[in-house]
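Duplicate of #3305? Posting structure anyway:
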């Protein structure tokens, strides 16, 4: 091989360095009408290097043949080479030559992919792999082998050939594992082949770049497993990727934080609240490393400061929203654990769970020690301190639930600072709905019915103004959600007032008026929801869409119940109310008769409706009989 110090070899190294600069630096300045200008210049240089290397190969191969005449060719590692791909056969210079050509093929492949010439890119990347197929796990080649497979994995994933991508990436993972087991020394970086000895990377930098390549493998595998709906594996690889990025200091704070917060949502769906909380605490702490949010005044004076301010505020608000979901899900899952078949707190179950809590806490501590935690010397204490502010075990009484609720409510405030109604309508409303849901589930733990009713009133106060303000023409789905939730909230308040009334011997006029008022408001919003499903001619659809089927029939069922609950001293008004109720119950029954597939969606409501269709006429006849007797 030509000497590293020869003029010709120096020229090759200079061209390689220039190609790298063109591709990585100058390409960012390319004009919009010629976006790949620097990439094409880099490609030309890489092709020139490829030609020179091929010429070197011809001369060196002849020398090798002459030198090897009369010698027996043996693997340099004592016979294990071809069997396990660890060493190349013959002169070790052959491996170096193959690696240098492989590096150029690799960069040509990446260049073509980046310029949207995928077939040519694939061809060069496959050429790279063929050059190294007999010596994949050496210090010279292992990093190149992994990175070539990473790029092929990305390429095939981009073509929606996910299983092909999976094959390349899993092979890259296997190569890394074998190398670390069998050697583990810092391997050569791709750039080491085209610099003088004085410019080669340090062992520390080689290790960092090699580990970064493998971190990319894990990141891409996480995406592949997600696309294959192997969510447990995807979560595992995503967690490991984030851990490695921290360990090797290879992360952008905001990007890392958002990925960790997103991972927390996966853990939440699996009720793995310890891991979910840890991800969120880490996300909040690492996001803080991105710096302080520039003031509004500074943002107005500088476009750079404005962009930084917007990005920091948005990402931190997104993390806050993930915290809200964490708190809400902890409370909702605790409610499911504690409620009886009527939806009320099961006291016996609560007592049993509290008794078991002591053993659970010991188990959780053991689990925590076995959980893969995000840690670095600078952030671990801060992450732990933030975790301690909210529990990861299910609250079992009002005080414990309130502690989780207050954390969630604090993050509601943070999220709303960025996602304001002006400019972020849908996001703002979703945050309000989560806030409402926090109050709803907290009310479950409250034993005092009056205080519970006040919590539902808070929900009304935050949602009703928005519902009145929104234009249903542009926000139909959101309006429906708000109408239904307001109807449900007033319905729950009515039920609470009914329970309080049952404790009294006589109902005063104020209580009756309040009760009827709540019934009327609940019916109003249910009817608004139902009206939104009507045709332009005002007719109720003969067949409801799947996503509206249950909500619409439940709304009609509850309107029927509300109409029958209205209190009036006038028998004539009572008959009118019961008649309206009967018609609403009949609607539910008739719809299910005409659309049998609907029965499964409203099984309980249908059964009660059929019962009331039979009972209400009897009740109405009794009222008529009393009126006639007078």
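Output from current build:
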């Amino acid at each position: 091989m030509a000497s590293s110090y020869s003029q010709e070899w120096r020229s090759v190294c200079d061209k390689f360095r220039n190609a790298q600069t063109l591709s990585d630096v100058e390409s960012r300045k390319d004009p919009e009408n010629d976006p790949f200008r620097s990439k094409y210049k880099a490609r030309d240089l890489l092709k020139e290097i490829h030609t020179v290397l091929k010429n070197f190969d011809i001369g060196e191969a002849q020398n090798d043949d002459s030198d090897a005449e009369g010698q027996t060719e043996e693997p340099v590692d004592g016979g294990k080479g071809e069997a396990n791909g660890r060493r190349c056969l013959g002169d070790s210079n052959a491996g170096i030559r193959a690696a240098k050509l492989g590096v150029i093929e690799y960069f040509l492949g990446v260049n073509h992919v980046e310029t949207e010439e995928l077939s040519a890119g694939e061809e060069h990347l496959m050429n790279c792999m063929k050059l190294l197929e007999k010596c994949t796990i050496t210090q010279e080649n292992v990093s190149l082998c992994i990175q070539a497979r990473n790029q092929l994995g990305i390429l095939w994933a981009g073509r929606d050939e996910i299983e092909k991508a999976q094959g390349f990436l899993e092979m890259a993972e296997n190569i890394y594992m074998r190398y670390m087991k069998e050697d583990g020394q810092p391997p050569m970086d791709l750039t080491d082949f085209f610099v003088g000895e004085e410019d080669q990377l340090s062992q520390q930098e080689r290790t960092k770049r090699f580990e970064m390549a493998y971190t990319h493998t894990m990141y891409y595998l996480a995406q592949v497993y997600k696309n294959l709906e192997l969510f447990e594996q995807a979560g595992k690889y995503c967690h490991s990727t984030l851990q490695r990025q921290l360990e090797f200091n290879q992360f952008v704070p905001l990007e890392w934080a958002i990925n960790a917060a997103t991972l927390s949502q996966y853990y939440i769906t699996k009720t793995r609240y310890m891991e979910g909380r840890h991800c969120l605490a880490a996300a909040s702490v690492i996001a803080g490393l991105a710096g302080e949010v520039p003031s509004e005044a500074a943002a107005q004076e500088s476009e750079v400061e404005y962009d930084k301010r917007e990005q920091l505020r948005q990402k931190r608000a997104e993390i806050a929203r993930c915290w809200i979901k964490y708190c809400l899900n902890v409370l909702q899952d605790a409610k499911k654990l504690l409620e009886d078949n009527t939806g009320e707190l099961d006291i016996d179950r609560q007592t049993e769970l509290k008794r078991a809590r002591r053993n659970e806490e010991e188990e959780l501590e053991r689990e925590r020690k076995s959980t893969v935690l995000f840690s670095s010397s600078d952030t671990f204490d801060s992450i732990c301190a933030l975790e301690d502010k909210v529990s990861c075990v299910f609250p079992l009484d009002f005080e414990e639930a309130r502690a989780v609720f207050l954390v969630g409510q604090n993050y509601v405030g943070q999220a709303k600072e960025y996602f304001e109604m002006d400019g972020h309508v849908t996001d703002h409303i979703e945050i309000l709905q989560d806030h409402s849901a926090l109050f709803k589930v907290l009310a479950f733990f409250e034993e005092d019915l009056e205080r519970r009713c006040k919590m539902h009133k808070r929900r009304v106060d935050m949602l009703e103004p928005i519902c009145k303000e929104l234009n249903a023409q542009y926000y139909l789905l959101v309006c429906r959600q708000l109408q239904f939730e307001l109807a449900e909230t007033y319905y729950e308040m009515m039920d609470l007032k009914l329970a309080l009334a049952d404790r009294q011997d006589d109902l005063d006029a104020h209580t009756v008026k309040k009760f009827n008022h709540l019934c009327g408001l609940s019916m109003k919003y249910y009817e608004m929801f139902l009206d939104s499903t009507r045709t332009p001619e005002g007719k109720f659809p003969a067949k409801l869409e799947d996503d509206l089927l249950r909500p619409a029939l439940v709304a009609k069922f509850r309107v029927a119940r509300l109409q029958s609950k209205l209190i009036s001293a006038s028998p004539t008004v009572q008959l009118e109310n019961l008649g309206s109720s009967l018609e609403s119950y009949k609607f539910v029954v008739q719809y299910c008769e005409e659309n049998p597939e609907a029965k499964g969606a409203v099984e309980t409501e249908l059964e009660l409706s059929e019962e009331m269709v039979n009972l209400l006429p009897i009740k109405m006849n009794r009222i008529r009989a009393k009126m006639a007797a007078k």
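Confirmed duplicate; merging threads. Residues 541-630 form one domain. The chain is about 75% helix and 0% strand.
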